[in-house]
Amino acid sequence: MTVQRKSMIGGIAVATAAALALAACSSSAAKPTGGASGSAGATAGAAGLPSLRGQHLTVLAEWTGAEQTDFQAVLNKFDALTGASVSYQSGGSNTGTVLQTKIAGGSPPDVALLPEPGLINTLAQEGDLKPLSPAIQQEVAADYGSGWESMGTVNGKLYSVVYKASNKTTFWYNTAEFGQAGIAPPTNWTQFLADCQTLSDSGITPVSIGGSDGWTLADWFQNIYLSEAGPAMYDKLAHHRIPWTDPSVIKALTTFGQLLGNPKFVAGGDTGALQTSFNNSVTQTFTNPPKAAMVFEGDFSATQITSTTTAKIGSDAKFFPFPGPASGGSSNFVQVAGDMATALNSNAATMELIQYLASPAADAIWAHEGGYLTPNKLVPLSDYPDATTQQEAQMLISAGTDVDFSLDDLSPAAFGGTVGAGYWKDMQDFLKDPSNVQATARQLEADAAKVTWS
């Protein structure tokens, strides 16, 4: 989902690595052990900033409301440390379009934070974005894992850095329903299906799915595919270097069909799921009485839980990592979304601002407020406001190289980001009839072949 999903990235996240005891939930990034305190990191960052007095910078991003307020605090600190003056503009859910309009009009911002890697790739190849400075490259190499660094690389050059991340490998569950059925969170797909059967036998519908939003189904498939096929194959599929009829796709669709093919496992069956939005799929899992025991979606689900139900994160509502295969795949993987900082010019002040945003000093400001996760491994877990967010952060760091951006966000929008068409529509059709895996794969490939891939 290129629009709605990204606007929700700022919600409180929740997640936990397999190496951690299953407990709470959310998505962020922080150093798993040790590290300087937030204040110490801020002092170090401040000491390295030059005077930019008299220089004015403009920044474009999608954040509004509370998120805008939190980001403005980060920019205000940069102003105070350097003497620069930074102006912020929100493009909302249309930030990509707003940026392209500004570029066409000859008045682009200095810095743009974009949630679409596909757009970043296009703008970089067209020369509208500038490679990031050697100092930023060094900062990213030191502070981020290689998987995150590769996300911002186009043709061997670093063009962006993930500033704010969202963990989309979190599975939220109603602890009371799990307790009633006498089950614990599963650690692999085989156990997950067994738990679904136990829940169903106990008179509890296992899973809530927001199928009216096609991107939720894409996220299901992408987590399954990443866990089974691994990041190298995932990257090939994300750029259409293998067809959607590849055996690896058939296998992942077959796995997904093991859930969708049992109407007792999904709240409302396929018809009900197709009429349920993402928001409602989360809410109905934690209302009293609940309509399902668990719901899969990103860390931003926590905001929906706390704003529409009385469930408490960490007690009534917890999460577990998306279950990978019992064997032959990965159990330590993360699918993410995020906002990536890019430069529209090569001015020194522009590069200083991006380097600041990539530093633990800047990360600490928003991290303390909550609703924020960063893949910067030098941000100590203590900078996050609660145990749930700390576990989310640990999960992003622990994934190592097994971290990938949402496949539909990497794809051309005509295929992977259009409501009622392409990938999302094909997944909704699969929800209606999960028995015909081959036909679904052929339709996905037919739709992929209609667009130009970079």
Provide an overview of this structure.
With 454 residues, the protein is an alpha/beta fold. The chain has helices at residues 4-7, 38-47, 65-82, 95-104, 117-125, 134-143, 146-151, 175-181, 189-201, 214-238, 247-260, 269-274, 278-283, 301-308, 348-357, 360-369, 387-398, 407-410, 413-416, 422-432, 437-448, and strands at residues 56-61, 85-90, 111-114, 153-154, 157-158, 160-167, 170-174, 207-208, 294-296, 317-321, 334-343, 403-405. The chain has two domains: 4-167 and 334-407, Periplasmic binding protein-like II (D-Maltodextrin-Binding Protein, domain 2, 3-Layer(aba) Sandwich), CATH 3.40.190.10; 170-321, 3-Layer(aba) Sandwich (D-Maltodextrin-Binding Protein, domain 2). Strands 1, 2, 3, 6, 11 and 12 form a six-stranded mixed beta sheet that branches. It has a four-stranded mixed beta sheet with strand order 8-9-7-10. α3 (65-82) links the parallel β1 (56-61) and β2 (85-90). The two termini are 19 Å apart. 56% of the residues are buried.
Task: Record keyword descriptors for this entry.
454 residues; 2 domains; D-Maltodextrin-Binding Protein, domain 2; alpha/beta; 4-stranded mixed beta sheet; disordered N terminus; single chain; 6-stranded mixed beta sheet
